[in-house]
């Protein structure tokens, strides 16, 4: 069964808009877990425009104190500061993205061949603190050179960047994109690497993605989930995602 990890960056953005601690990020995250979310994702950025460094420590403490295990996933570019944070927090999963500091949201996958030596070195460091490192990858840039580079880097997971699928699904033409994703998925799995997926997934398109690629272990969803919850409420939306993923 594919698991849901809720990205709570948007909750932090809402809190920061008023310069106060409301809504309280830890409390909302705990509520999301109580409503059925098996994982929490954060993406702290250097300017702390949403998730702050202190948020990461606070969430780690809350999750560690829970009676049942909940996955904590931290996304980010592997700068020295980020690496130190991971070594301190020791999350369940780290998702590495090639974002420059000022980018609005993650909008590209790693160029694996070009960054192979760098990523191999980063993984050697991070795997001492975290058992699972995932690399953000764009299926439309996938080729044999990228496959060989991924084999050499040897992360535990790859996260498929799903923006192109979301756009194609909205336009009613997702089949070709899904076939591109399936090619990537099959070759990644052949290397013994597991799959995640994320970016612009929502209640409308998630089922089609999981039906096409049921091997996906986890999806990270934040912006759409928060937006849907404005209309339906967090508990209803979390239950909706779990119903979709439970059918896979």
Give a description of the structure.
This protein has 248 residues and is an alpha/beta fold. It has one domain: TIM Barrel. 46% of the residues lie in helices and 16% in strands. An eight-stranded parallel barrel has the order 1-2-3-4-5-6-7-8, surrounded by five helices. Helix 4 links the parallel strand 3 (71-76) and strand 4. Helix 2 runs parallel beside helix 3, helix 5 (116-126) packs parallel to helix 6 (144-153) and helix 10 packs across helix 11. The longest helix has 16 residues, at 175-190. It is globular. The model has no long low-confidence stretch (mean pLDDT 96).
Quick gist of this model?
This protein is an alpha/beta fold and 248 residues long. It contains eleven helices and eight strands.
> Mean of residue pLDDT?
96
The secondary-structure element order is EHHEHEHEHEHEHHEHEHH
Spatially, the strands of the biggest sheet line up as 1-2-3-4-5-6-7-8
Largest sheet: 8 strands, parallel, barrel
**What is the assembly state of the chains in this entry?**
single chain
The stretches of 5 or more residues where confidence is low (pLDDT under 50) are none
Shape: globular
Number of domains: 1
The CATH architecture would be: Alpha-Beta Barrel
| CATH fold title | TIM Barrel
The count of β-strands is: 8
Amino-to-carboxy terminus distance: 6 Å
Structural class: alpha/beta
Radius of gyration: 17 Å
Helix amount: 40-55%
Q: What is the CATH top level name?
A: Alpha Beta
Number of helical segments with 4 or more residues: 11
Beta-strand proportion: 15-25%
**CATH 4th-level superfamily:** Aldolase class I
